[in-house]
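Q: Please design a sequence for this.
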């Protein structure tokens, strides 16, 4: 029975990995910020079955002595303590039919769900070798990505190339779980099976390094296709964040792989020669068109212009700026976990709220229960947990980067692929957190569990 239970919760976990990008359906309201995520249902079922199985064995594996776990525990402890230190204001906070206490508890539950994913992942991973876990996870990501590619293919043809006759076929995707088809004819951006382009961007950032790794490990002629499709979907998503982050991930991936191993050096050399040859051919036949497209994309990265013309960008920057104002007034303890929105409502500068429908309809509308996002986890932690909280979090990330680099340096050949993928993924998550303020990043906790598993295996081996 225990073997079957173990296999069952492992399959539910892998199903959760597959469904990470799927959040375009109506959702389940009581799950809060996770309400639209199809993946969370499978992860929770996996955890429940794992917990039952662990009850039979009377053991849940958690490396409490590991320095990463200790810093993570310290971060969670400070989130709670900073809120308790601000107990008086938390009790008085009230906004959008939500009290400060209620908001804190909801955010704590949200963080707990992320930690549940980490605990489940780690306990599943420790039963197998790092290589086996890596290849199984990558296959799950690939199968999910293949579905996203097929869906996006139809979406691109309809939205970008106006092939409306395909709509009847495209609507068949509505029968797939957690999926509701939609079109963006105004901006001609795709979101695939995700709710909107920014969430597709987070998914692409999550899988980018895993897809890049096929260049190093696969012997098939199609090994470049996953990487190519990552960039194709990034391009059509129209996400500036994804474009910058994934390009950065790719360049760092090439750089690290090139200098980490002689075998990878030759592979990267061949890849670069092939890439430049193909690009040269494309420029010869479609050079003018490519230049026009590149100029258009570069123009979208014009921060000053976009800040003036884009309401969304003005809101993002304004909310981040307001978080810094809150931090300046509460530099040590912050205002408490989840309390940023309560303190920000009276501090938004006029240049942010004036003629801004997002504040009128959503962020300052008391009838709309959704809280305004912080749009940046670093400025949010500064505002809510003060300098102590942000330093703990930054040092936690530093330890992760350091450990990945250490594993890359100490391992040989294909063993380097896993820490390379983890490092590139963590870089992507960390940069993306500059415009995302939630710990609800499934890929981060899965990669963190795999890193801990590698670290623990290494420690046991050294002992």
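A: Design:
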């Amino acid at each position: 029975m225990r073997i079957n239970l173990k296999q069952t919760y492992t399959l539910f976990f892998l199903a959760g990995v597959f469904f990470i990008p799927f959040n375009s359906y109506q959702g389940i309201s009581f799950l809060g910020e996770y309400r639209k995520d199809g993946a969370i249902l499978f992860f929770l079922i996996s955890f429940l079955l794992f917990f039952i199985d662990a009850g039979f064995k009377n053991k849940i594996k958690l490396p409490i002595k590991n320095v990463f776990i200790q810093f993570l525990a310290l971060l969670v402890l400070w989130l709670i303590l900073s809120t308790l230190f601000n107990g008086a204001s938390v009790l008085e906070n009230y906004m959008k039919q939500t009290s400060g206490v209620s908001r804190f508890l909801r955010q704590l539950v949200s963080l707990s769900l992320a930690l549940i994913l980490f605990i489940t992942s780690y306990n599943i991973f420790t039963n197998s070798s790092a290589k086996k876990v890596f290849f199984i996870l990558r296959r799950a990501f690939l199968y999910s990505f293949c579905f996203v590619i097929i869906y996006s293919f139809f979406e691109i043809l309809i939205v970008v190339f106006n092939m409306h006759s395909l709509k009847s076929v495209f609507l068949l995707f509505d029968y797939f779980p957690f999926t509701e088809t939609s079109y963006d004819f105004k901006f001609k951006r795709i979101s695939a099976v995700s709710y909107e382009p920014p969430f597709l961007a987070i998914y692409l950032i999550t899988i980018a390094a895993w897809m890049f790794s096929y260049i190093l490990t696969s012997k098939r002629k199609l090994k470049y296709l996953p990487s190519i499709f990552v960039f194709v979907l990034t391009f059509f998503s129209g996400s500036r964040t994804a474009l910058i982050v994934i390009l950065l991930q790719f360049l760092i991936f090439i750089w690290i792989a090139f200098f980490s191993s002689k075998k990878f050096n030759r592979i990267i050399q061949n890849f670069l020669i092939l890439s430049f040859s193909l690009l040269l051919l494309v420029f010869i036949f479609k050079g003018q068109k490519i230049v026009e497209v590149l100029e258009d994309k570069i123009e979208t990265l014009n921060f000053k212009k976009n800040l003036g013309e884009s309401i969304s960008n003005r809101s993002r920057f304004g909310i981040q700026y307001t978080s810094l104002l809150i931090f300046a007034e509460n530099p040590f303890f912050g205002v408490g976990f989840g309390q940023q929105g309560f303190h920000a409502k009276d501090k938004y500068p006029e240049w942010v709220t004036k003629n801004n429908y997002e504040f009128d309809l959503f962020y300052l509308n008391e009838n709309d229960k959704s809280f305004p996002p912080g749009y940046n986890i670093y400025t949010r932690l500064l505002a809510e947990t003060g300098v102590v909280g942000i330093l703990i979090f930054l040092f936690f990330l530093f330890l992760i980067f350091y450990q990945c680099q250490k594993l890359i340096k100490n391992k040989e050949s294909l063993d380097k692929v896993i820490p390379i993928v983890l490092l590139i993924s963590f870089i992507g998550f960390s940069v993306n957190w500059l415009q995302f303020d939630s710990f609800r990043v499934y890929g981060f906790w899965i990669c963190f569990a795999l890193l801990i598993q590698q670290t623990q295996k290494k420690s046991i081996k050294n002992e």
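Q: Thanks. Anything notable?
A: Residues 158 and 166 are 7 Å apart (CA to CA). Residues 459-463 have pLDDT under 50 and may be disordered.
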